[in-house]
Amino acid sequence: MESPARPAPAPAALLYYVAFSQLLGLAVVAMTGTWLGVYRGGIAWESALQFNVHPLCMIIGLVFLQGDALLVYRVFRNEAKRTTKILHGLLHVFAFVIALVGLVAVFDYHRKEGYADLYSLHSWCGILVFVLFFVQWLVGFSFFLFPGASFSLRSRYRPQHVFLGGAIFLLSVGTALLGLKEALLFELGTKYSKFEPEGVLANVLGLLLAAFGAVVLYILTRADWKRPLQAEEQALSMDFKTLTEGDSPSSQ
Q1: What is the pLDDT of residues 234-247, one digit of tens each?
Q2: What single string gives the DSSP state of each residue in 75-97?
């Protein structure tokens, strides 16, 4: 009796790039906390510091956790597909909840201080990202986790789902960079051009944000690093091809 085939190991370069992405992501979160703690007074809900909840939550939720959710299918290459799907979906849920806290914080702060809402490019992009993220999660849950969706429907929608996931992530990184620049201009004004320590730290934070987005995107676009099909996935794919093209497995 033949022994079952051993799972193919992950490419060594993939592991290094994933580790590098995590170092960058954690550095982004840590530097965001440092910026808010050292130069913006810290974080609190019932005070003028409530605004600072917004950038920290958005960085953790819509940048770091969303990026990690996209990498799930590269990291967990040999686990059961359903387990990987659940982890992918849960990370997006955590990201959504944290981002929702950040969104409530900024709107509540603006209301208390009498500031206008949704007038800047950053705010427009932010709302667009949040809505797209939520819709993407709902549609993804309906197609890939809800038991009623057919295999053919999932197969046809999967390319759009993958593309939109990457696009929303990149838009999230870009929106975070816009918000960082906006915060610096509001706080520092003309002093920004004088290499103030806060401005220098925030510029480094921006470079780390861009680097994290670039590394995650690179990992996702390497075709040879995609999750290999498991035995049950290959069987389903063959059945689908048989039904749609009229081929039989024996004729391949």
Answers
A1: 544 444 444 444 44
A2: H--SS-HHHHHHHHHHHHHHHHH
